[in-house]
Structure formats: structure tokens, C-alpha cells
Design a protein that fits this description.
There is one protein chain. With about 525 residues, this protein is mostly helical. Helices cover about 55% and strands about 5% of the residues. It has helices at about 5-15, 15-25, 35-40, 50-65, 70-80, 85-90, 100-110, 110-115, 115-130, 135-165, 170-185, 195-205, 215-220, 225-230, 245-250, 260-270, 325-335, 340-355, 360-370, 375-385, 385-395, 400-410, 425-430, 455-470, 495, 510-515, 520-530, and strands spanning about 275, 295, 300, 310-315, 315-320. The radius of gyration is 25 Å and the shape is globular. It starts with a helix and ends in an 8-residue tail after the last helix.
């Protein structure tokens, strides 16, 4: 095995090819039509049937785009169903679909599966309450113990998402769950957000990831994770906190150029007063006339005693003081606003097509958004069936770290048993700068190529590629076990996928580097670190 320094010296030109390709407007991804292929120099051996080869390359590009990474099994599923039925199956996922039994058992063993967020929060509150009259050291220890619960549940939520990304048959649903978790971003390490971030993902985001945007927005607005993260728990009549109101319009709906004013921010903040978290010790004490307005749903609380019941004028509409009903009216206005349709459509198009998507496809998606009342599956269908999207399959989209790590593991370990431990994968995401649910600011992780294509990132990705190709043992060890694990031999990935179109257009530089590899592990490392594998 070559040592890391020698590997890096040999691979540095290859690792920097994505930047050179971008500068030269050259892309290594497969062409999408026979005519386009004929217009490009072909550096691969001529297949027996060029049309079939082009079709396989197009299929592989499509699967790579709408899943967390193509595998032989996923390509076989597309071929079995046909493109149209495969897309529909992804856009409208089967709720009866199941993870492999071994993976589900891993998820069932996580803390978030064995204890509800409500019970975990109650446990934390009890720890802190019992130590309230204790000495300072005991109080600090109680705080540390409570924080351990939050960190463990946040880690387990990330592990659950990791397992699902690798093994769920509903791949588009898992991708969109991550997309919306990033769009409606919260920072798991703030306060006790880690305690209930599992229910944020599982109850608010995931069931609505391909549903109506209005329902998704309303669910995030009632989520304790969001209310704590953007300080709405501090927002009360007479003590207005505008933080959530501002980000709700700027980042979640209308966009920074959505036409709202500072007065709209203030009025929305007034509308949102009283939304917070339930106290497990009992409901708040209320005057008799307000008791009918109290709403408790799990950890969510609407406390009418903290709400501003004055009339508001929001986005040009008068909203009469009516308690929680005001929030529903505001959600309707935001979710069905033309600026929201364009802002969300633009973000979706950029996610699936890369930087600066054409205005033409955004226009079509925005029209579908408004005509179909924010039906996310319908908006994505407009995108996926557009000629602009088909053209983007030719150029590819640069992978952010999450796409890179997931796609590398899905391909490299496709013939291995399901992984046992997600810890090495989580460490890779931290190394590459994109740990799950750890974005400090509410804008979510960036998606542009320029954010992830620097030389330092490319060097780190090579190290990740080498760890995946040469060190699968780490993913199959229980706990702190360091002993060897009996695993099937990992195949030569390029040879194994020679006929499925996935690597139909590897450049001469990539092929030469792989051909010079001394071992299959080195060859797999070169492939996973190649410019072509950096794109989806």
C-alpha cells in the first residue's frame, strides 16, 4: 500500500481537476443523447451498442441525482420499473417500504427510539431541579449530565439519518428530508435542542418532505427545536423578540428580496408571541377567559397569557387578534405568496441542478408551486421532466460533503453487509466541514460548488476516499472493539461497474491514474477521489 504522502503527490493533479474543469467549462459527466456524444471526443473503448451505452449513462446520471448515490441494485430497480415509474415511485414513496432488518435493529437500539423527547426533557428538568439547592459542584454536574442526554440524542438522530440515507429504498424522501432539515436549519448544540431534534426530523420534516409546503412550514413553526433555536420562546407581549419572524421570511419563505418590510417583521413577531415549549410540571396558570385559548401538543405550547391580542397588518393584510388562529393566517399568506414560490423553487432547482439554474425552469416550477398549492412532489416532477434538468445531467452537480460521503459508501459497500457503526462516517462529515445538524447559523449549509471545491477540501476528500476503500473494518466494529471483522472482499469498483454507465465517461487522466494503481484498494481510492466522482 502506498503511504498517504506518496498517494497525495500522485493524485494532486487529479484531485484539482474539478477546479480546472470548471474554469475551462469542461465537465466529465456523461452526455445525454447520442448526438451529444457524437459531438464530444470519446476516450473510452467503443461499445458494441453506442445507443445502449448512452442510455445506461443517462440512467446512471438520473439515479445519481435523485438518490444519495447510484448502486447496482438501484440501477437495476430503475431498469425494472422504467424511468417514468421509477420517478413516480421516488416522488410518491411507499410508506410500507422497510429498511434491511439489521439496519432497523440498529435504529431501534438508539436512545431516540427507546425514550421519547418528552420523557428525555422531563428527565433533564428533574436533574436540574433536584440539584437546584445543592452545592455548586453538584449543580454543574447536573448540567453536564443533562447536556450528555442532549448530545447523545443529537448524535443518534444523525446516525438514524445516516442509516436511512445508505439503505432506505425511498431515496428521494431521504434526500428531501435532509434538504428541508438544511432549509429549516437548527443548531443541535444550542441549549437542549439536541433533546428533541429527533422529533423535529421525524414528526415535522420527514412526513412532509414531499407533501405540501404549507403543511411543512406550519409543522416547523410548531416545533420546539425551531422555537428554541430562533428564540421565540422569549417572544411575548411587551417583550417582543423579532429573531424568528425575520428568519421565517428571509430564509424559510419569501427570501431576502421578497418584498417585506421591517414593519412586517415586527407584526409577524407580534403574531408569533406565545409560541413556546410546554412545561412538564403542568399547564400555565391562566385567567378564566384565556383558558380556552391554551394549546398543548406534545412539547409544543401556545400560552395565551404571553400572546399579543392586538390587531396586526402583515404583508398588506389585516389580521385580527385571535390567538393561535393568527399564526395559521400568517402561514397561509407566507406559504402561498408568489415570492415564496420563486424563492423555494430557485433553491430546489439549485440543489438538483447546480449553481445558477436557468430562469426558465424556475419559472415553470414557480407556476406549479402556485397552481398546486405548494405540492413539493409536483414541483419536483416539473423539474425532473424539464429539458433543462435533462441537460444538467450532462454537466453534473458538484457534491457537497454529505453527498460525497453517502455516495462513496453506498457504492463501495454495496456488496457488503449493512454497516454496524456510523461513527467513522460522522467523523468524515466533521472532517469535511458538514456534520449533520451542526450549522451554527440559521441559513443552513451552503450548496454552491465554490463552497466545497477548494484544494484543502479535495485533499480531505482523498483521505476520506482512502479510508472508505482501504478501511471498511471501522464501519463494522461494535463500540470500542478494535479487533478484526470478517468481511467479503471489496470488488474492483471500476471493473464491477464497467457496463452500467456509471463511469462511462471517465477522463484519460482518471483512467491512467487507476490503471497505475498497485492494488485494488488503491484503484478504488483513485476512483472515489476522481473528478468524475465529485459530481452527481
Amino acid at each position: 500500500m502506498l503511504d498517504l504522502r506518496r498517494f497525495l503527490r500522485r493524485l494532486t493533479p487529479l484531485l484539482l481537476l474539478p477546479l480546472a474543469a470548471q474554469a475551462a467549462n469542461v465537465t466529465p459527466a456523461p452526455c445525454i443523447t447520442p448526438a451529444a456524444c457524437a459531438a464530444e471526443p470519446d476516450n473510452t473503448p467503443a461499445p458494441r451498442n453506442a445507443r445502449d451505452a448512452d442510455a445506461r449513462a443517462l440512467d446512471a446520471a438520473l439515479v445519481n441525482r435523485i438518490t444519495w448515490g447510484a448502486t447496482p441494485a438501484e440501477l437495476a430497480r430503475l431498469h425494472e420499473l422504467g424511468t417514468a415509474r421509477y420517478l413516480q415511485a421516488q416522488l410518491h414513496p411507499d410508506p410500507r417500504a422497510r429498511l434491511p432488518a439489521a439496519v432497523q435493529q440498529r435504529i431501534d437500539a438508539l436512545s431516540i427510539s427507546r425514550q421519547s423527547a418528552d420523557d428525555a426533557q422531563a428527565e433533564q428538568r428533574a436533574m436540574r431541579k433536584d440539584a437546584k439547592e445543592a452545592d455548586p459542584e453538584s449543580r454543574q454536574q447536573a448540567q453536564r449530565d443533562a447536556r450528555i442526554i442532549s448530545r447523545q440524542r443529537a448524535d443518534d438522530t444523525a446516525s438514524r439519518a445516516f442509516y436511512r440515507a445508505l439503505y432506505s429504498p425511498n431515496q428521494l424522501q431521504e434526500q428531501m428530508t435532509w434538504f428541508w432539515m438544511n432549509h429549516f436549519s437548527v443548531y443541535a448544540a444550542k441549549n437542549d435542542i439536541g433533546t428533541y431534534i429527533d422529533q423535529y426530523e421525524e414528526r415535522a420534516i420527514r412526513p412532509r418532505a414531499l407533501g405540501k409546503f404549507r403543511d411543512l412550514l406550519a409543522a416547523t413553526l410548531r416545533s420546539p427545536a425551531m422555537l428554541v433555536y430562533l428564540d421565540n420562546t422569549q417572544n411575548a407581549v411587551g417583550r417582543i423578540n423579532e429573531n424568528y419572524a425575520r428568519e421565517l421570511m428571509e430564509l424559510h419563505t419569501l427570501g431576502v428580496k421578497g418584498g417585506y418590510t421591517q414593519n412586517d417583521v415586527q407584526e409577524l413577531a407580534r403574531i408569533l408571541t406565545g409560541l413556546g415549549i410546554r412545561n412538564p410540571d403542568g399547564p400555565p396558570k391562566l385567567r378564566p377567559e384565556l383558558r380556552g385559548q391554551l394549546v398543548q401538543d406534545g412539547l409544543f405550547l401556545f400560552n395565551p397569557a404571553r400572546h399579543d391580542y392586538g390587531d396586526k397588518v402583515f404583508l398588506g393584510h389585516t389580521i385580527r387578534g385571535a390567538g393561535l388562529a393568527e399564526v395559521d393566517q400568517a402561514v397561509d399568506l407566507l406559504a402561498r405568496h408568489p415570492a415564496t414560490a420563486r424563492f423555494v423553487s430557485t433553491k430546489l432547482a439549485a440543489y438538483f441542478m447546480g449553481d445558477a439554474p436557468p430562469a426558465s425552469v424556475i419559472d415553470k416550477m414557480s407556476k406549479t408551486f402556485l397552481a398546486r398549492d405548494g405540492d413539493i412532489a409536483a414541483i419536483l416532477q416539473t423539474l425532473f421532466t424539464s429539458p433543462e434538468f435533462a441537460q444538467s445531467l450532462k454537466t453534473g452537480v458538484f457534491k457537497d460533503p454529505v453527498h460525497y460521503v453517502y455516495s462513496a459508501l453506498r457504492l463501495a459497500y454495496a456488496d457488503l453487509p449493512p454497516i454496524v457503526s456510523t461513527r467513522p462516517g460522522m467523523a468524515m462529515l466533521r472532517q469535511l466541514g458538514q456534520p449533520l445538524n451542526q450549522r451554527l447559523t440559521p441559513d443552513g449549509y451552503p450548496q454552491a460548488q465554490s463552497d466545497w471545491a477548494g484544494s484543502g477540501q479535495m485533499t480531505a476528500r482523498f483521505e476520506v476516499a482512502r479510508a472508505i476503500a482501504a478501511g471498511p473494518q471501522a464501519f463494522y466494529r461494535e463500540g470500542d472493539d478494535k479487533g478484526p471483522v470478517e468481511l467479503p472482499r471489496m470488488p474492483d469498483l471500476l471493473r464491477e461497474n464497467a457496463d452500467d454507465g456509471l463511469f462511462a465517461r471517465l477522463s484519460p487522466a482518471t483512467r491512467q491514474a487507476i490503471a497505475q494503481a498497485r492494488t485494488p484498494k488503491d484503484a478504488n481510492t483513485y476512483l472515489l477521489a476522481s473528478p468524475e466522482f465529485m459530481r452527481r
